Fold each of these.
Amino acid sequence: DIQMTQSPSSLSASVGDRVTISCRANQSISTYLNWYQQKPGKAPNLLIYSASTLQTGVPSRFTGSGSETDFALTINSLQPEDFATYFCQQSYRTPRTFGPGTNVDIK
Amino acid sequence: QLQLQESGPGLVKPSETLSLTCAISGGSISSSSWWSWLRQSPGKGLEWIGEIYHTGYTNYNPSLKSRVTMSVDKSKNYFSLNLNAVTAADTAVYYCARDFVVRAVKLYFDHWGQGMLVTVSS
């Protein structure tokens, strides 16, 4: 299986901050990398697919970058509704696997 | 708008079979999509269990393959998950989701059910 890691595991930030979350795969996955946001008691919600393509309806303050093994999700000007947990997921090879998540909470 | 809804028992005894269904509304199970089951637990995070196509073709996570069976009911527009010989480690929130496919590549999960907590306990 392809192993996904994320850093940091959690971070505290303020409204208006710029936040970057890293995701790393233990082998090359090209750009087959997706980002999801999850709020407590809810299902994950797709934010970005294919490393950098914004899903329809997702605010443009979310950007994704990277390829091969190293990826990043950046949230520009953090909004109150952005406090949540973020997961990366690879779709390069079955079984699809997820990172352990990064919790973004309010400083 | 495509919607998915999980249903089934919320409590299953150890060694028995966990059975869940995912009802699809606002779309057809016979579309070109694949349909997946995933689960989430504090100990193992998000885990993909397997997927099924409307023809009945399946792919399972090797870590669970010996205990998993998935099926479709096209007349009722739903798909199902059976996980046998459960233990406490199978306690999790179970989600059904749609696999978005582009040129035969399953790219991402774009629609999810709300999730259902299944507890394995005697």
Note: DSSP finds no helices and eleven strands in chain B.
Amino acid sequence: QQQVKQSPQSLIVQKGGISIINCAYENTAFDYFPWYQQFPGKGPALLIAIRPDVSEKKEGRFTISFNKSAKQFSLHIMDSQPGDSATYFCAASAPTRYALNFGKGTSLLVTP
Amino acid sequence: DSGVTQTPKHLITATGQRVTLRCSPRSGDLSVYWYQQSLDQGLQFLIQYYNGEERAKGNILERFSAQQFPDLHSELNLSSLELGDSALYFCASSTSLADTQYFGPGTRLTVL
């Protein structure tokens, strides 16, 4: 059972555009929501993470928006660049059980 | 480079065989997680160790086992291999239980 649902499965954005990836969860015990970026042949790398006490977190061109009541969170990539082309995974974990529950991933292609 | 190392990088074996995947966590990290990544199931948590003790289990088959040694490296043992076990296996480590998980480069297992 997929505890975190991610959409879209794939995304094509022009250079300079905004990439938006959405995730939804059901387990209200989740209290940590990271986003990981994965390039082909590499392991996932932490991009940015948020906890539910804030509704938004920004790091450079990357922003997480968090809606606790809707149980949704999203990743916005501003001024998308070809180097951002990768697979992005949202995840969630609960206190006392720290294993990450991953979404199925979004393959992002940023065209020149 | 996350600082997590995994060996071997690639492994090709036959059905029914047994293999061992090795993970060395980042220096100072006490917690080790194993994840399986396949096209149909995505990234799935298998098992977690903390300072030598098993901490949590996920979707790990009975044919699979793991351990964490006193020097904190971990091994994942896969036995009676089936075609469906072909996947990428990632190890992640964190300083303590609630900290960021850093992923290794993975071991690609192919079962023929």
Note: The mean pLDDT of chain B is 95.
Amino acid sequence: SYELTQPPSVSVSPGQTARITCSGDALPKQSAHWYQQKAGQAPVLIIYKDTERPSGIPERFSGSSSGTTVTLTISGVRAEDEADYYCQSIDSSPTYVFGAGTKVTVL
Amino acid sequence: QVTLRESGPALVKPTQTLTLTCTFSGFSLSTSEMSVSWVRQPPGKALEWLALIDWDDDKYYNTSLKTRLTISRDTSKNQVVLTMTNMDPADTATYYCARDSEYNSGLYFFDYWGQGTLVTVSS
């Protein structure tokens, strides 16, 4: 079955930049999306279609894509950005696939 | 304002059937390109997509769970119902319903989520 690979954890100091990668063989052909999940809360969409940001999502969240890897970048990290981040794409239409998640720790 | 809310039992016994209801507002599941999915998350683990029903009443399932799942809708009540048979402790998870409003556009992502409901499977 199709897998999306994320690093388990990323640690970053406040004000620095965090980058989270997500790799998958089909990503050159299928869009990827990112969700933020804070402890005890439901996921929230923060990036869709690789690079687009929904209204209300701060500009410090951005996405990029290159080949089989997409990257979520959090610029000027704040303490409130500490959360789990999941990438998501699809396998066959429509089988939604999530990465295993990356825990961002703000030092 | 789009909202989704899950409801159902907090505790089920092994081998029982789980029935969960997603009640939504702020959109119609009869609108083209609209769909509602169920997604679950075991404690401390990742998200897992389970099933989807779309505006045309087409249904799709996670292939590894397909034999145990049934998704249906009641458009007049703005509800989507998921049943999962033969529950096992490994099915203990928070179950979410989520909306995809650009379904079939080639993008496939969830723009709104419910708050989730924790289901524990234990005798």
Note: Chain A has a mean pLDDT of 96.
